[in-house]
Amino acid sequence: MSFKTTRRALMKDITLGAGASLLGPVLGQLAAHAAGNAKAIRKKIVFVVQGNGMNPNHLVPVGVKRRPDGKNERPNNDTLFELSLKDLELNSALEPLTPFKNKLALLQGLSGRIALSDHSANHGALGCYPANKGAMAQTIDFALGQAVPGIMPHIGLGLMNKPDITMNYNFSASAPGKIVPIQCSPELAFKALFGSIAEGSGKDSFDRKTNLLDFMANDVKKTRSTLATEERIKFDQYLEAFEALRDRQATIATIHDSLKVYAPKLEDRYKNPTKTNRLEAQFEIAAASLITGLSNVITLVSGGGGQHYISYPELGIPVDGHHYGHGGGVEGKNYEECFVTVRKYHTKLIANLAKKLASVKEGDGTMLDNTLIVYLSDSGDSHHPNLYEWPVVLLGNLGGKFKTEGRYLQFPNYNTKNHRTMSNLYLTLLEAVGKPRDKFGIADPGLKDTDQRGIISELLV
Amino acid sequence: MSIFLSLILTSLASGQTLSNDVKLTNAEDSPLKIRAILKSHCNNCHGEKKPAGMARLDNLNFDFSVAADMWFAIKEQIEQELMPPENSRKLSKGDSNLILNWIDKQFLNFMPTKPNQGNLVPHALLFGKEFAPSKMQADRVWRLSPGAYKGLINDITRKKLEGIVQPFTLTPERGIKDFAALYTIDEPSTEILIRNAEMIVESQTAHEFKDGKISGKNDSLRDFVLLMDPKLDVTNAQVQAVLQQQFKLAIGRDANAEEVSDFLKLYEKCAKLGERSAAIKTMLQAVLLRTDALYRSEKGRVEKDAMDRQQLSQLDLARAISLTLGDRKDTALFQAAQKGELTTKARVQIHLERMLDDPKFEKTRILKFFQEFFEYHNATEIFKDKPKDFMHQARTLVDDTDRLVLHILKADRDVFRELLTTQLSFVNTAKKMNKQTRQEEIVRAVIPPTVNENKMPRQIAPSGVESVYGLKEWPTVQPTVLPENTRIGILMQPSWLVAFSTNFDNDPVRRGRWVRERLLGGTVPDLPIGVIAQVSDEKNLVFRDRLKVTREKSCWNCHSKMDELGLPFENFDHFGRFRISETVLDLEATSKNIDKKGMPIGPIHHEVDLNTKGLISFSGEATLNGPVNNPREMIQRLAKSDRVRQVFIRHAFRFFMGRNETLADAKALQDADNAYVKSQGSFKALLVSLLTSDSFLYRNNSNSIPKSVGETK
How far is A416 from chain B (nearest CA, A)? Predict the structure, then answer.
């Protein structure tokens, strides 16, 4: 994939003179940016959610002990403990992120007990509510997507063990009860997002959808006109939805040239749909979606959510995550070595994504400068989590909003006065995109003395 | 004091209204007179300059549909004599009546739209001797409920489809949730609907090729599958045939000529892009996305009857009745509609009685009504720490109560009173198929784990869920009679008590509000903005005493109408266990509970006698008012009340009509109440009456008041 052309240079030709006011928000933003308005650059956020838990020890730099007694167990500090990563070596599980060490914040000690469940917190991981009650409320990824909308507010891409399971319904939600599916087939994701530039059936499919949306908008309009005025309101939103989706198709068609430049070339991976090929394809689709402005918020999931486990024969792990999650080894590796191998593979993908974003100029810097990657597991700290702590890796500073210049942070222990939770982290993200809220998710009833409503000010500039 | 702040935020309407004296026909009401009264009594504080509570009454809009909330607040304040405030000139009885009378009359043409505003419509006028002019509602559309959407999918596919996502949700607000006025379809829902439509059509057209011949897969539709064959030279007639089939499945009727033409155009447009089979699929998806598939349409037929009314069109009526009782189409009813047979109340009644008696027609909405009325199903939303010595399983508690409701409905006798006062209960139950008899039978739902004493000698096995009901053993006869003088009815089911509790404590305020709204028909405003509802954390006090914050003068106006109705339920702990004393922290003993180094070892608790007294006041029925000693006494008294029964009827009306009542619905409500009473408390009789009422069957799209106004008994 080539990233020689900057989006700004490319879009200058397309948008200026075409009447930016007629274009969608992203094109309008790009037009403004091309005209030199750096403030118009939108923030981009990527959630990378990996199943099977994230061992807190994987975040601990080489030579650092978590507790004063030398044990690598949950410490009982009651104040924030912080180290600079500058002179420290990353744990081998995170080693691929070393080139971005000065853009990292490794967060330890945030709890998420409200979402406690075996194997996966499901929507609770990004929603901060109980794990097995479905989509009880909007999840943070969709909330951020609404705050910094691209052509689409949010894109969910993922990997399931079997290629014929194309959707995962256990991560994101736009509202209570409204699940946002994660598209787990790179082929279908590509068709939906980049179908307009595809030749043959992909292009036809895109055009048919446009026809359908167009037809439905007219159909709803026609029925609407048969109703009394006060009842018409009930059809207005439905009509607007079709019109918006149709306009989105039209907008996508407008950035046809940009999509052509950045659309991932995935043919080889379609032909050989191994797990790693599929996951890499999804990361490439994510990168291209961010670069072209299809969306500014993407959730990339790998297994997890509804107890889906991946085996990686290509990495020498032909057994699925549940096997080594329960202490089983394979091909000479013990369970911990399996975990590290898989973690290392994911951090390599994250590093590649960051590298791609860093190669695209944006404003006075690169696209990575305006991005934040949030890496966590939907199962918190373990395959069988207790969620007294939920390790999170932050990469990037979201246009200078986050203090992620190489930090290792151990937040105060659960049930101490200054303890912080995943809700606090998500509130911090909302604050950073200018959409602060009073609370997020459902408060942990076990934390009566903890402020579960505030932001984590230590993370913000 | 900012008087209007309290006018808006702390007002409360009880059932005891001045409207008892109101005569609709003779009321001398005039906006001019009201404006003069407001000017002399209110505008000093609520005038143009620095209006108290940022609310002006000097320029108040008399168009109710524009300023309804303000008029509701005024009504509540005057009824409760909260305004004008102390040390101000009081309103004369005549002036109060004039204003209240005028407000009450507005409910002839105005319907509060939100589910919890229904009680604002004056009870005395709905059940008074004089009927208000009966004006039919106009045509309306009603977005499918989540259950009805699921039913639609089942009607179309007749099988379980993996991957279908629910696009619709209901308000998380308390009470009845599915009102026709509340819901539309937004963009995320539309995206889900499109994906679902794709999946359904994929399933309808699923096929494979064997030896070059196409054949259907997994219950796909034969006619649909045939058109997927690329070798077939598809004719327009074939495309039309599948279009008509899809219309019947999704909408329950044939497409008309204009619709056929429109859909064929879509097909042809898509076919030009290439793959013809894909074009057919797109056309079939479009049918599933139509408004008449996703909204329930309730339109009156063009012809008016002698009373100037329009009966619902036959198909609309068939769908309305089906979706009022269940989530799926009733085939026989649709067939009758297609033959044009649903033309009289008597014929509709025959079908209703058949459906109510037919066990094969799933009447999911009936249980749903009781769940939303009582709200016990919210027990699963209350997260509690796992108790050490007994098992708390909210899901099982809710299932038990569901079974109790169904049990009482099956007997269909004195239903509402039974629901409030029965001494029976299902206890820790689940249903399991007996493989030998092939019958479902009641089994013990949750069995406590046994403890291996060798490994964990100190651990005590927890008691089962039945201990929450006060039973040591799981009763094999279900429902079982609960211990005397402990609990009766739904409001003392553990599920209801948990649903109206917090993570750690009882919630007498919400319990009291429920009784005030659902049994007495009063209204209670939501917590004023800016007030933090914080109960004292003094664990050495019983909860009744910890609630002292609500006794402050500014709070007590409202809280006296709630707390006193909720406090009798202190007879139970927040897990719903009956108790005669309350466990509180013993401060003195705890302070002395230290180790040799003087470090505290842990809290010490002791038992304190319970006070389960309460007070019924402002009930709207003089004989109800007065103190009560415990929750059983309170509920027994309420269960005998005509007013309480009528309030229940009003809630049933709202649920099954999908809207609040207006004064024009008085006859429908009184007929339903009479049918219920005459049938000795049959819920079926109540439903038949409601669903054959003019309010359900008729529409009127003219703005004029019809000829039948002013009907009196």
Answer: 18
